[in-house]
Amino acid sequence: MSQVLVLNASYEPLNITTWRRALVMMLKGKAESLEHDPERLVRRDLHVPTVIRLRQFVRVPFRQVPLTRRNVFQRDNHTCQYCGAKENLSIDHVMPRSRGGGDSWDNVTTACMRCNVRKGNRTPQEAVMPLRKMPRRPLSSLSFDAVRQIDSGRHSEWAKYVIGA
Q1: Where residue 1 falls among pLDDT bands split at 50, 70, 90?
Q2: Is the pLDDT of residue 48 over 80?
Q3: Alpha helix ranges (H) inside the chain
Q4: Long-range Cβ contact pairs of 111-117 (< 8 A, separation 24 or more)
Q5: Which of 27, 122, 142, 144 can bridge 138 by disulfide, Cβ–Cβ 3.0-4.6 Å?
Q6: Could you count the other beta carbons within 10 Å of the beta carbon of residue 116?
Q7: 41 in helix, strand or coil?
Q8: Alpha carbon distances (Å) from 112 to 80, 92, 117, 126
Q9: Cα separation, 162 vs 51, whole angstroms
Q10: What is the pLDDT of residue 148?
């Protein structure tokens, strides 16, 4: 099923919805289409939207991205942050748990098994294994999901509306 990026009236990303729901919002006058799929028509004069913008501003609460193994791998592009390998990946604690490091976005990173074992119970500085990219919390759940869609090549037109893409 085709997905549609929903933007607030201020052009900030709000949600990802189905093309049917987006079409209903457009037909009711609640949203306008900014981008569409030139290959897919709903009817002769109406393309399936890929990005819509709400006509009225909507206030939404902030949602944080949950810290999960899958989300850490996604943030790090399924790449070892020490050597760049893309196979046999695991999660590494920058500051080892045995030395007080916790499970947080800024203390976990993707590492291949070889680098994880080599680093052992040390910090990257002590092991002389610099990180390619310092770990950080993703901006928002929506932008995280949108970047995943953009990176997969399914919705490259979303890139101009999403920070971090």
Answers
A1: low
A2: yes
A3: 19-27, 69-75, 113-119, 141-151
A4: 111/80, 111/81, 111/82, 112/80, 112/82, 112/83, 112/85, 112/87, 112/88, 113/88, 113/89, 114/83, 114/85, 114/88, 115/80, 115/82, 115/83, 115/85, 116/90, 116/92
A5: 144
A6: 19
A7: strand
A8: 5, 9, 9, 18
A9: 11
A10: 75
Distance CA 31, CA 49 (A): 11
35 φ/ψ sector (left φ>0, alpha ψ -120 to 50, else beta)? beta
- Alpha-carbon distance of 78 to 16, in angstroms, equals 23
pTM of the entire structure?
0.65
DSSP annotation of 66 reads P
How far apart, in Å, are the Cα atoms of 99 and each of 5, 46, 105, 113? 43, 60, 17, 20
Residue 163 pLDDT level (bands cut at 50, 70, 90): low
Report the largest interatomic distance among the alpha carbons of the chain, rounded to a whole angstrom: 65
For the segment 142-153, what is each residue's pLDDT rounded down to a tens digit? 777 777 777 777
Distance CA 48, CA 38 (A): 8
Q: Which residue, among 132, 140, 97, 142, has the nearest Cα to 112 in the 3D structure? A: 132
How much is the mean pLDDT over the chain?
Answer: 90
